Structure formats: structure tokens, C-alpha cells
Amino acid sequence: MTVALTCFALASNAQCSFRNTAFKSGEFLSYNLYYNWKFVWVKAGTAAMYTVESRFAGKPAYRASLTTRGNSKVDNMFVLRDTLLCYNTLELAPLYYRKGAHEGSRYTVDEVFYTYPNGNCSVKMHRQHADGTHSWERHTYEDCVYDMMSIFLRARSFNPKSWKEGFVVKFPIADGNGRTPAQLRYKGKTVIKADNGAKYRCLQLSYLELDDGKYKNIVDFYVSDDENHVPIRLDMFLKFGSAKAFLVGMKGLANPMESQLK
User: Fold this and answer.
1) Domain interval for residue 247
2) The pTM is what?
3) What is the mean pLDDT of each run of 10 residues along the chain (262 residues)?
4) From CA 152, how far away is CA 219, in angstroms rounded?
5) Phi/psi of residue 42, each to 5°?
6) How far apart are alpha carbons 212 and 216 in whole angstroms?
7) Which Pfam families match (predicted)?
8) Of 6, 106, 169, 188, most Cβ neighbours within 10 A?
9) Is 257 a domain residue?
């Protein structure tokens, strides 16, 4: 394990920071979405991720957003209108997270607000439930806490050169309703064809959360095997079925796309 990963696992940095080698302001990634409907994969919408340098509480920060939009033709099968937003410091410490999720007939909102008093990580969590009620929690931890967006931004800068299949990075996740143990599990290398017609050498990573004493697979990421670690394909295991996202376009990358096969 590299020194950087050791520091990450122990979360010894009081401000929960990490060096960014994978992306820069202005990166835009777009995807086609597919749903599994009665054992058939149906093209069902689009997704986009945009990262830009912005400001949060008057200080420079990265603002990253991920939107998923199912089209009206498949709304009778499954409604998906998710918007995820996060702010991180330029050193990738989480500052704010919001997820507005319209999945099936349910609509929920999760928010997490981060501060770092006295070398600790303090989180204020808010959830708007499907019935319209609200709940709030506040906790302070000695270790770092993340959300799905901030851990994804951080993971893109991991150095996987020494990883072997089955390697695991553990971390706690906050989602507006509490803190959950989670992990990224490395599953090896493969080649993935994107919806732009190109093929890429990829690393396969699974994101899992602890649920009822067992780790449940939430998303499989196939990220480019280069310094960008761009998600080429995502396999999402939803409460109401499964979906896939395939890369269509990308611009504003920080590094050459060396994983693309000729």
C-alpha cells in the first residue's frame, strides 16, 4: 500500500485533504443510460458529470454535479431523476453534499454539511423523507467522513499500481440519515467499449455499503487505466432494478487519455 493510501485509510489528516492528480476545472463527462426491463436492456436517458472550480463560504472550492435523466418514454417502467451535488476544497476535503432523488414513486433529499473544528470532522445531516417530513442529525468524529460524490472525486486520484485483485479501501459514508461503513473493492483490469465507439483499458472498482451486517454492492465503476481515471461504464444496482451508464463524450480532461486502444 502506498504512503498516500495509508494516510487515507487512517484519516490522520485533520482537514481530510488529498492531492488531486486526476481532474481539473471544466471537466465534462456525458453518458447514455440503460435500464434492465424484463431481462432486456433499454436505452432510457442520459447522465452528465461536470466539475468546475467555484467558491464555497467565500473560499475556492471544486463544485461537482452529477445528473441522471430518464426519458419520458420509459417513465412507465421506472422514473429516475437524480441530481447529486458536492463542494470540496481544492485539496478534496468535503464541504457540502446534496442528493435529490426521484426514483420510482419516491422523492427524497439528503444533505450533509461538513466542518472541521479542533482537528475533528463534524457533520450536520438533513433528510427530507418521501412523506415530506424532515430529520436532522449532528455528529463529530475523530476520523474523516465522506459522501458518495466526495469519495468518488478522491478515489480518482488513488494510485492503483500496487493493487492486487481483492484489494479494499475502507471509509465511512454520510448520506443525510447517518453514518455507514463502506468500501471500494478492486476487481482487476478489463477492456470496455464506450458509447463513443472507442475501447479503453479499465480498472474495475465496486462500491459497497454495509447493510444488515453484509456489504451490499451499490455501483461497479469501470474507470480508465490512466491518470484521469474517467468512468467509462457504471453498473448501478438500484432499489427498483438495475441500470448502466456508458460514456458518450468527455472534454476538459487534466491528462492525456492513454488508456484508449488504437
Assistant:
1) 3-251
2) 0.86
3) 39 70 98 83 89 97 91 63 91 95 75 94 92 93 93 95 96 87 97 98 96 93 98 86 91 98 88
4) 11
5) -115, 130
6) 9
7) DUF3108 (PF11306)
8) 169
9) no
